[in-house]
Specification:
The complex is a heterodimer of chains A (319) and B (391). Helices cover 45% and strands 3% of the residues of chain A. Chain A has 319 residues and is mostly helical. Chain A has 15 helices and 4 strands. Chain A has 2 domains: 129 residues, Glycosyltransferase (Alpha/alpha barrel); 115 residues, no CATH class. In chain A, the strands form 2 sheets. A two-stranded antiparallel sheet of chain A has the order 1-2. With 391 residues, chain B is mainly alpha-helical. Chain B is built from 21 helices and no strands. In chain B, helix 10 runs parallel beside helix 12 and helix 14 runs antiparallel to helix 15. The chains are: A mainly alpha (319), B mainly alpha (391). At the A-B interface, helix 8, helix 12 and helix 13 of A face helix 4, helix 6, helix 8, helix 10 and helix 12 of B. Chain B: This is Protein farnesyltransferase/geranylgeranyltransferase type-1 subunit alpha.
Chain lengths: 319, 391
């Protein structure tokens, strides 16, 4: 029996492989038929025939439909209403209406809403207000309030910031490209690995920057992601890596492919989190360890390497 | 032939291969078709392959018989994640009208070792729905049992909420939350459940009616452990969609002031106060004094704008301990402060994160460094992480 999780994984794997054999091998019309069958009258999706309904199903279905360019009104109808009903009093998103706000479902909910262009319907202030508190003192992210951190949430929670930065300007206006320099100040920046640093001001902030270090500091802070990227990288590199290779939840847990995937994706998100422009290379000071640690950027909605995503996007828009 | 109850483990030990069971002699097992060039073929144990090959035979022929039913049990025990087998089992149940109480018992027996299995909980939901309201006590009891093993099991909580909404049984739910919070006031799942009950129980008056007593309860919890994020969020949640009442409830600002005055564990108090101010709350002089009392000598001149002053305190917390991983503050809030010249009128409520136990993070980082150092990989890893990243 087909299942949305395996469908999502298979489509993403094929796209990650890319190429002229991989992409055309996907039978889009059959996938569409399957997705239609999984659609529930409530607007949500089931994971399989007569299977469970939750926000995961909504995300995997919409993600697959979107990337294969088969997303239509019938598929996205009422999904927004369902996901909206899953945002909790805490600000995060739950798997089902009423359940606890959870990192995995928050990512799924937000990503799906972005894909159907209804992210504005969520209380994004509340969402951000929840997710920023999910980063623990260890540097890693926890999935829920008062629970332990886990490497995989580096992507589920960390990815939320990437999603908002990329698809939703949370600052009000678009941040200017980072290679435009205004005033320079040396400030004690909490996010970087060096002791003193140069801020990236833009032309219009000259007035503010000239008022002294602290204002410059505030100005500089706008460019920073809303989570502590270096701290998360530190957690991933020091605690999530298995010395024999592969990555894991935390120390003394076994490595597995799921954690390897999501820890690496989280690490990539961190390294690229200082830039709004997806085509730029990461700033050296945004990267913990040698610059050779830099990973391929991933598309924060689909969790596919960006180059492969572009190839697939182009391919499926043609056919 | 129906099996006895509770023999799953026994079956494993004394298993007779299907090929040797007379009742299966007429069936030709269908092997798994991995295609011509399997890339990562799984090394199945012979018992597993055999069971699944026989399963495929009856599944493809849609044989909904007693022997198929028994076979699904064996297949589930071998791989409880196989949703296809669970699905077929349900189809057999519908056709044969097998005993649903027995079914609950079966799920119950394998639940402990499969407590986070989506298929198991979905199956239970399906059975309970068929049984209807008569099943309510048993199901609440079952989830209670599961939650006693893991008070935060996400599936158990979702299932419990489904039972309440579909089958009823709300009478003791608020008490149940109370008990769990008594055992662990930090249990966020219990707080979430409390919110669920308070807002959705048909036996209570709804959020507005319950709000007053809930605020009091929550404030008690906050004062007991101001570093506990859960009640702070719950408190905010009680005033969801009613900001006016929130900023006007004197108990809210009062608890912030109380916690600030203790000069310890005040991050959430500060955050809440900031939030209040953003929404129009006008703090009295005592708040300013309490904030100023938190400032360290090196934090610079006192800010006339209280919102900014709070930001500075939060910022100082973030930068205090060098070896600790500080959490970012809220650039967006700073931005608003700068651009509007103050907090008044700003409705921005993006907040910073909290700094909890310093020793915890030091311990974790030290432990990980120690492990790596002992394994001889530390220098290589940290200085040259490429070793593990390049292939």
């Amino acid at each position: 029996m087909p299942h949305l999780a395996t469908t999502y994984a298979a489509v993403n794997a094929l796209i990650s492989l890319g190429g002229e054999k991989s992409l055309p091998s996907i039978n889009r019309s059959k996938v569409y038929t399957f997705l239609k069958c999984m659609k529930d009258p409530s607007g949500a999706f089931r994971m399989h025939d007569a299977g469970e309904i939750d926000v995961r199903a909504c995300y995997t279905a919409i993600s697959v439909a979107s990337i294969l360019n088969i997303l239509d009104d019938e598929l996205l109808q009422n999904v927004g209403n369902y996901i909206l009903s899953c945002q909790t009093y805490e600000g995060g998103i739950a798997g089902e209406p009423g359940s606890e706000a959870h990192g995995g479902y928050t990512f799924c909910g937000l990503a799906a809403m972005i894909l159907i262009n209804e992210a504005d319907r969520l209380d994004l202030d509340a969402l951000i207000g929840w997710v920023v508190f999910r980063q623990g003192v260890e540097g890693g992210f926890q999935g829920r309030t008062n629970k332990l951190v886990d490497g995989c949430y580096s992507f589920w929670q960390g990815g939320v910031f990437a999603l908002l930065r990329r698809f939703h300007s949370i600052i009000g206006e678009s941040p200017t490209p980072v290679d435009q320099r205004g005033a320079e100040c040396s400030i004690d920046n909490t996010q970087t690995t060096t002791a003193s640093d140069v801020s990236e001001g833009d032309g219009s902030s000259d007035e503010i920057s000239s008022q002294g270090d602290e204002h410059c500091h505030f100005q500089h802070r706008e460019r920073e992601p809303l989570f502590h990227s270096i701290a998360l990288q530190r957690y991933l590199l020091l605690c999530s890596q298995d010395p024999r290779g592969g990555l894991r939840d935390k120390l003394r847990k076994p490595r597995d492919y799921y954690h390897t995937c999501y820890c690496l994706s989280g690490l990539s998100i961190c390294q690229h989190s200082w830039l709004k422009d997806e085509d730029s290379s990461p700033l050296p000071r945004a990267v913990l360890g040698p610059y050779s640690n830099v990973l391929e950027p991933v598309h924060p909605v689909f969790n596919i390497v960006l180059d492969r995503y572009h190839e697939a996007h182009e391919f499926f828009s043609r056919s | 032939m129906e099996s006895d109850e509770g023999d799953e483990q026994q079956q494993e030990a004394e298993r007779l291969p299907l090929s040797q069971r007379p009742e299966w002699s007429d069936v030709t097992p269908i092997p798994q078709d991995d295609g011509p060039n399997p890339v990562v073929p799984i090394a199945y144990k012979p018992e597993f392959s055999e069971t699944m090959s026989y399963f495929r035979a009856v599944y493809y022929s849609d044989e909904r018989s007693s022997r198929s039913f028994q076979l699904t049990k064996e297949a589930i025990c071998l791989n409880p994640g196989n949703y296809t087998v669970w699905h077929f089992r349900r189809q057999i149940i519908e056709t044969l009208h097998t005993d649903l109480q027995d079914e609950l018992a079966f799920v119950g027996r394998i639940a402990k070792s499969n407590s986070k299995n989506y298929q198991l909980w979905h199956h239970r939901r399906w059975v309970a729905e068929k049984l209807g309201t008569g099943a309510v006590n048993k199901e609440l009891q079952f989830t209670k049992k599961m939650l006693s093993l893991d008070a935060k099991n996400y599936h158990a909580w979702s299932y419990r909420q489904w039972v309440l909404q579909a089958l009823g049984g709300w009478e003791d739910e608020l008490d149940y939350c109370q008990i769990l919070l008594g055992e662990d006031i930090f249990n966020n799942s219990a707080w979430n459940q409390r919110y669920f009950v308070v807002t959705r129980s048909p036996l209570l008056g709804g959020l507005i009616a319950m709000r007053d007593s809930e605020v009091n309860f929550t404030i008690e919890a906050i004062l007991g452990n101001p570093e506990n994020e859960s009640p702070w969020r719950y408190l905010r949640g009680l005033y969801k969609d009613d900001t006016e009442s929130w900023i006007n409830d004197p108990r809210i600002s009062s608890v912030c002031l109380k916690v600030l005055s203790t000069k310890s564990n005040y991050v959430f108090a500060l955050s809440t106060l900031l939030d209040l101010i953003c929404h129009g709350f006008r703090p009295s002089e005592e708040f300013r004094e309490a904030i100023n009392a938190l400032n360290t000598p090196d934090s610079g001149p006192l800010d006339s704008d209280l919102g900014r002053a709070i930001c500075r305190v939060l910022d100082a917390i973030c930068r205090r301990a060098p070896d600790v991983v500080p959490i970012t503050c809220s650039p967006q809030l700073y931005h608003r402060v700068e651009s509007t010249g103050g907090i008044d009128g700003s409705h921005d409520s993006v907040k910073d994160s909290s700094l909890r136990n310093i020793s915890v993070v030091q311990e974790n980082i030290f432990a990980s460094k120690l492990e790596l150092y002992e394994s001889g990989l530390y220098d290589v890893m940290f200085a040259g992480s490429t070793v593990l990243f390049t292939y």
